[in-house]
Amino acid sequence: xxxxxxxxxxxxxxxxxxxxxxxxxxxxxxxxxxxxxxxxxxxxxxxxxxxxxxxxxxxxxxxxxxxxxxxxxxxxxxxxxxxxxxxxxxxxxxxxxxxxxxxxxxxxxxxxxxxxxxxxxxxxxxxxxxxxxxxxxxxxxxxxxxxxxxxxxxxxxxxxxxxxxxxxxxxxxxxxxxxxxxxxxxxxxxxxxxxxxxxxxxxxxxxxxxxxxxxxxxxxxxxxxxxxxxxxxxxxxxxxxxxxxxxxxxxxxxxxxxxxxxxxxxxxxxxxxxxxxxxxxxxxxxxxxxxxxxxxxxxxx
Length: 301
Known about the structure:
Number of helices: 3
CATH architecture of the largest domain: Sandwich
Radius of gyration: 19 Å
Number of strands: 16
CATH class of the largest domain: Mainly Beta
Oligomer: single chain
CATH topology of the largest domain: Immunoglobulin-like
């Protein structure tokens, strides 16, 4: 599974005073929060979209087996190990209920559990609030590819520090209301290459956007910036972030301008919890945010 959401620049930005300070709140200023508020750029999107509407392959049930997962908790920004973090797994890919497994990482951030391959699951990482170290971090729709060895070794799970959760909004020049959530993701095309000029629309499943929640994109220096400067994803990184998304279940869609119309490229569904950071990529041709590795498909060796 491709995971390229990494923001190692953010502490440097905070220390150097760099970044874009701008209080712009998104495409349209005081305009009503409708589809056009989020999707309005007529720059043709980049990337391969030929897989839209095509057969994406069939998951081989024989590849859906339980394996030992020898994982490591790492900081989302610095990539350092996070010691003694709690790690929870939801094997039904639904973080709204009780977790199926919970483990505490050791001093080196290492832990072991059992996960199914070729099956979407979710995980969360946590440290005690009194430590003032991290925020609750979730990643849903994770699919681990089939392995013949019976174990997945050295796979990282992400943990976002409190400093990073504050730096992302502050670089843009806004404040995070930690009763809401943050979503950070990458836009991918059919070949899982980053897409340029993709736009992100969030709604309740019936087309109504949340009352709050602004979406920003990243410039050539991998810095989040305002819509005055960037109105869609950069083809160099495909990165986007949504800040102050209310608690609840939201449809997150990726749109692109074809030259004649805006086209729905892909989407995912996320359950946002209070005070959380959610890492979520969107894949062209997928309407549920789930992309199965080739090793999971029928006919794969």
